[in-house]
């Protein structure tokens, strides 16, 4: 009888632990995270992050005079990161939700893509790692192995895409202009819910 009570107590204890762990994976619920993502406090941080990105975009456009953007896309998203690293032995401490913003300058040139990239690197060197403003930059162009594409997550809690020049897809711009370049600017998270 004593071992049955102990077994019951151990089982209830384990069930309680699994319930708490399970609830921590779903709390707060998505609707509450969406409400946080659209709050005035997050909106103020979002506007500051967007201004930093747009300032950097203007610097790039002024620094490379021949670069004429076909489009400048700003992608802002808040993503549920609770499942990230679920089966990792040392999961990263990320929190519940992260909001970050990226800018993509899409352009094309008439010349050889590698020559154009070399000219950009000579006249406007990309930072190695994060810039002083916390922006990571990279330059890519269409190759036989890989086409440039916007880096967007699937099923974000909240997102917004704004385009400066056109509502055309990257594929449509490629059909109309040939080889595409993408100067990607990824900003560190401007908001995190732990």
Distinct helical segment count: 5
Radius of gyration: 23 Å
Could you spell the SSE succession in H and E letters? HHHEEHEEHEE
User: Which band does the percent of strand residues land in?
Assistant: 15-25%
Uncertain runs with pLDDT below 50, 5 residues or more? Answer: none
Structural class: alpha+beta
Helix percent band: 25-40%
The quaternary structure here is single chain
Largest sheet: 6 strands, antiparallel
Average pLDDT, rounded to a whole number, is 83
Report how far apart the termini are: 45 Å
Number of DSSP strands? 6
Give the overall shape, derived from the CA principal axes.
Answer: elongated
Characterize the structure shown.
The chain has 194 residues and is α+β, with helices and mostly antiparallel strands. It contains 5 helices and 6 strands; from the N terminus they run αααββαββαββ. Strands 1, 2, 3, 4, 5 and 6 form a 6-stranded antiparallel β-sheet that branches. The longest helix is centred in the N-terminal third of the chain and has 25 residues. The protein is elongated. The two termini are 45 Å apart. The relative contact order is 0.20.
């Amino acid at each position: 009888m004593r071992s049955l009570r102990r077994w019951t107590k151990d089982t209830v204890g384990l069930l309680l632990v699994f319930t708490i762990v399970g609830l921590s994976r779903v709390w707060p619920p998505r609707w509450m995270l969406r409400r946080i993502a659209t709050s005035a406090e997050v909106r103020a941080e979002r506007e500051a992050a967007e201004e930093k990105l747009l300032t950097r975009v203007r610097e790039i456009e002024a620094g490379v005079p021949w670069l004429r953007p076909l489009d400048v896309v700003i992608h802002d998203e808040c993503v549920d990161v609770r499942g990230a690293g679920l089966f990792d032995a040392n999961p990263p401490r990320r929190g519940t939700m992260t909001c970050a913003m990226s800018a993509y300058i899409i352009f094309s040139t008439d010349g050889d893509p590698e020559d154009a990239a070399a000219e950009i690197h000579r006249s406007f060197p990309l930072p190695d790692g994060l810039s002083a403003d916390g922006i990571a930059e990279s330059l890519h162009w269409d190759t036989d192995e890989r086409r440039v594409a916007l880096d967007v997550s699937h099923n974000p809690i909240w997102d917004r895409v704004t385009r400066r020049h056109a509502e055309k897809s990257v594929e449509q711009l490629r059909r109309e202009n040939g080889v595409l370049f993408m100067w990607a600017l990824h900003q560190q998270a401007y908001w995190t819910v732990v």
